[in-house]
């Protein structure tokens, strides 16, 4: 699907008590899978966790436009998830992302339950002149999203088929060539859905 204008793209960091982990996974999966199957304007959703206990969670969401987001926000599955999240989320951060590049597989994804997939979140401080380098910094991905929160702070989200593929490249070495300020988050994917062949024109 060719996107003629930049979609709504957001990053959420949610901290929960590990004792609520299984219920959090179940409600999140229902929200993502149902939205993917019923909402044409919901382009991508990915729920991940960083630590072994599952207390630190990163969620990425992309909608075609504001109307598509409002359809999702008013859906029964999101209302149920939001009500649950209010009870179990201990703290949250929300970042609105300005998408600069998107590349996804030619087949739609629906990942859930036990799976080998991994995500990598890169946060990089560098100037806009490095955009082309950032667009090409990742290899062997099945999906990649390059965005920023402001002209100097970049967020790159890469999806890999497995952890060994992600580990093949020395991403720290590549990042050190363009920035002295960066962070790397390796994330287990809990649930992910996206439409096929997304590309920003």
Automatic annotation (TrEMBL):
Residues 12-83 form the ABM domain. It comes from the Bacteria. InterPro entries: ABM_dom (IPR007138), Dimeric_a/b-barrel (IPR011008). This is ABM domain-containing protein. It comes from Companilactobacillus kimchii. The lineage of its organism: Bacteria, Bacillati, Bacillota, Bacilli, Lactobacillales.
């Amino acid at each position: 699907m060719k996107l003629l204008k930049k979609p709504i793209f957001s990053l959420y960091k949610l901290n929960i008590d590990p004792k609520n982990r299984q219920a959090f996974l179940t409600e999140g999966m229902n929200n993502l899978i149902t939205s993917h199957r019923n909402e044409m304007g919901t382009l991508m959703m990915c729920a991940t966790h960083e630590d072994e206990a599952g207390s630190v969670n990163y969620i990425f969401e992309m909608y075609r436009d504001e109307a598509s987001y409002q359809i999702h926000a008013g859906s029964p599955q999101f209302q149920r998830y939001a009500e649950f999240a209010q009870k179990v989320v201990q703290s949250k951060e929300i970042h609105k992302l300005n998408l600069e590049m998107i590349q996804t597989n030619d087949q739609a994804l629906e990942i859930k339950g036990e799976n080998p997939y991994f995500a990598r979140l890169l946060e990089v401080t560098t100037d806009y002149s490095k955009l082309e380098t950032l667009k090409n910094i990742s290899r062997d991905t099945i999906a990649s999203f390059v965005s920023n929160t402001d002209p100097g702070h970049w967020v790159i989200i890469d999806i890999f088929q497995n952890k060994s593929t992600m580990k093949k490249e020395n991403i720290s070495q590549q990042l050190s060539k363009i920035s002295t300020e960066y962070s790397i988050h390796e994330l287990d994917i809990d649930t992910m859905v996206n439409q096929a062949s997304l590309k920003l024109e």
